[in-house]
Amino acid sequence: MKKKLALLCTAVLAFGLLAGCGGAKEEAKQPETSTETPSAGAEQGQYKDGNYFAKGTPDDKGWMYMVKLEVKDGKITAVNWDGANTKTAGDTKKQLSESGKYGMKAGGAQSEWHEQAKKMEDALIEKQDPKAIAVKEGKTDAVSGVSIHVGDFVTLADQALAAGPVEAGQFKDGGYHAEGKDFDDKGWKETVDVTVFNGQIVAANWDNINKDGKETKKQKSIAGTYGMNWHEQAKKMEDELIAKQDPAALVVKEDGTQDAVTGVSVHVGGFVKLAQEALASAK
Hints:
- The protein has about 280 residues and is an alpha+beta fold.
- It contains 8 helices and 6 strands, in the order ααβββαααβββααα.
- It is about 35% helix and about 20% strand.
């Protein structure tokens, strides 16, 4: 009887040890958890390789923001956030900031616009997802040293990625200017400014400066002191250039007028010629 009791105790003890070991093994199989939640882009690398682009609508000062992204091996590898002024065209906001013509530090900012834009571009490359950048009332506390409005940047980056890859245009990005050689007999000289982003013409400004150095023809037309709706017709030609993406595609008759754009009766030969000259260095 004592032998049987000893054997029974031994069996129970062995079973308990096995159960304990089994429990330890199950516990060891549990995966480690992380408190970090990577964004969808960083986690999956789900973007299709290529060039992405989106542009917004102009604000009351004429600034239209744009974002260009480059994706390689499913990841965002390059970001360019910039702005074009649809009223004046020419150099982009980043170019103006870099050259000191759009100074923010003089107004009390801790850094210039292009420097803050670079921080946002770097943040997107790190996060790999625009939605991972928290924005409140157009600004963000998530990126140190950024005080400018970034709502457009985040929205446009998201729109660009959602739309998928697109082909870039034929021109080199930047601002371009051309003007006539001489003033005419009424004291006017034509000027054309063009902004290119993602290889596309995104803004154009056709105007005339006067030898007296005062108001331009567009300014006088808008004010109603030029005697005709010149600025409205100029706008139609600017829009046509943006639509055609090539001044050579704007057909001009021998007398300098055209029939392709409804509502335009002014001479446009100078506009087309100067637009071609301005973009000659953009190829």
